[in-house]
Amino acid sequence: MRSIKLLIIALSCIFISSCIPHKDTIYLQNKGNAVNDTIPYNLSEVQKPYRIQIDDILNIRIKVLDQNNTQIFNPIGEANLNADSAERAYFDGFTVDIHGNIRIPNLGILNVLGYTAEEIEKMIEQKLLDEQFKETANIFVTVKLAGLRYTATGEIGNPGTITLFKERVNIFEAIANAGEIPLTGNRKEVMIIRQYPQGQKIHSLDLTDVNVMKSPYYYIQPNDMIYVKPLKQKSIGTGETAVSSISTIATIVSLAATTVLIFTRL
Prior knowledge:
10 strands
């Protein structure tokens, strides 16, 4: 009997440590550092303009009064009509090579590494005016990233590489498109592994804190890797919630009691 009591006490300790607290599963909590649950709009505008990196794919479109003169600059992609949006972007876009260059028909090689899309637009427009058109042509150049591509891995619903066709994507949108974080994922330490010219850096976000919206890493960037750590409760394996933990422990106690009873009769 004493052995059963000790076993129950031990299992109770495991139960307490194995349950995932409800507060660890809720996003955007007011943890006392915020005046209210709403972050002023101007405080969320902390994202700096994205600067082009190696392997980025640029979608470049050039418009003038006579569009027949720009066909060579604007790829149509007729050979890939059955391709999806991401594949089309790959074939029709301009990929930044390892030297930071892109090659545009008639304009030649342009180095775009470290420039913003707006700076590249002005660069191409000036080059067209100098070499191809006159100011009366009313040149209009648009440069966009061919989708925002990122990778989500770790304790997440559908890990993998995802491309979203938006200019700005926050961390919650990125995670939602990757299948959400299950109960066993650590929402308090979501890691953003980001590319910089000098190498990679790791940043951590607490998604349970409303102040995450003030973070300069709240909006993801192309080529980011999002890693969600598993909670320690997953390795214990006794259950994700109180109900599942109680059910598991009750089964173990029942088996233990039966075993002790058998040995007592022997």
